[in-house]
Amino acid sequence: MITVDVVHGDSLDTDMEVLLSLKAFMQQHNRLNQGQYLKWNQSDNPCEWPRISCNDDNRVSAVDLSNSKISGEVFGNFSALTALSHLDLSMNTLGGAIPEDLSQCQSLKYLNLSHNILEGEMKLQGFSQLEVLDLAVNRFYGDMNIRFPGICKNLVVANDSTNSFTGRIDQCFDECLNLQYLDLSSNSFSGDLWVGFTIREFSVSENYLSGPGHLPSIFNGSFSLVNLDLSQKEFSGEVAKGISNCWNLVT
Prior knowledge:
This protein has one helix and 16 strands. By secondary structure, the chain is mainly beta. A hairpin with a 5-residue loop joins strand 1 and strand 2. The protein is elongated and about 60 Å long.
């Protein structure tokens, strides 16, 4: 069993301890093909370490481990980096469920877990500052409507494509008032389309959605829409004449 040393604090020194714990955790999971995190202790200042960035208060604010050939579970103590606003773990082979600890990262504005083999229900909550969420190309499943409204107050970009999410989406995003880019393609959503959107890019291709009685209204007020993808085998309903209201529509 692999254990993680839990570190808490609000200083660059404690940030460094957390990163060294993260490094040890990744080394235990990845005996070969280790990435740039091997260089994390070559200086006493973690702000100078590769894939690490700090804010103006000299605190670790960004960890970018994308395409770092890491596997195993997601590290379970990111919340100890109390100034962390940017976390990118994309394009690896991380598996298992999202740890509950991740929902304690209250300062996160950018979270990218895409292109891994993560699975289970999307148990994310409490992200009051989150602006970008990318969960694409994983193995998540379940009803997104249970969790999503609670994390989308400031969300601008959401990519949940190529998973196994189910359920309805017609009221899932009503509270996402800042949302501009939404990709739900290649899932198993069903029911009616979401009719409240005023976003720039919206894709729900390859799902099981319908539009009787509602499809005309999805274009009312959608003047900012630039890209719309409804392509799928199981879509039913007619394309409304109201699409002519989308003056900026390109594709």
